Amino acid sequence: MTDTEIINIILQGNRNEFQKLVERYKSMVFRTCMGFLHDKDDADDLTQEVFIQIYLSLNKFKGDSAFSTWIYRISVNASLNRVRKNTGSPILNRLDSLFVTGKEREISSIANDNEDPENILIRLEKSKWIQNALDSLPENQRTAIVLSKYDDLSQKEISDIMKITEGAVESLIQRAKANLKVKLSSTYKKMQV
Known about the structure:
Elements: H1 3-11, H2 18-37, H3 40-57, H4 67-87, H5 90-97, H6 101-110, H7 117-135, H8 139-150, H9 155-162, H10 166-192
């Protein structure tokens, strides 16, 4: 069954068919959210919110683009809104960091039974550097690099989602890579001192 056929059935009143769209696109939406939020629980929560938004807006999908492109736009916008909202309250972020449950979850998810704890901590630190560098990019660069690297989309697909030319996408990705290289190398140099 195509997306359009499923959408038409849902819009005719068979709400149960929406589960098919959720199953088809859940991992795609989750990857996109994870690319912006870097936290599994936050990405899971936002994925659910995105699907609620998709369901409530389904009648607004006109078919001008692929359904997956429309879903990506909703996912990216929801992720950027969440990032903006979270960066707006540094007090809450600091309070969050007082509780180790998130870090414990992160450590247990990447550790295996035989791995040296020092290696785990080094890998966690590197991951955090990358996340911080990614978060510091301008929104358009961050969006392009997340869709390219986390979701493995082509420049054509990214240009459809971001509503810009493929050349602009390529430029954004190149600038994002250059900025990430500078940010990560300066962080590395600081750690060597």
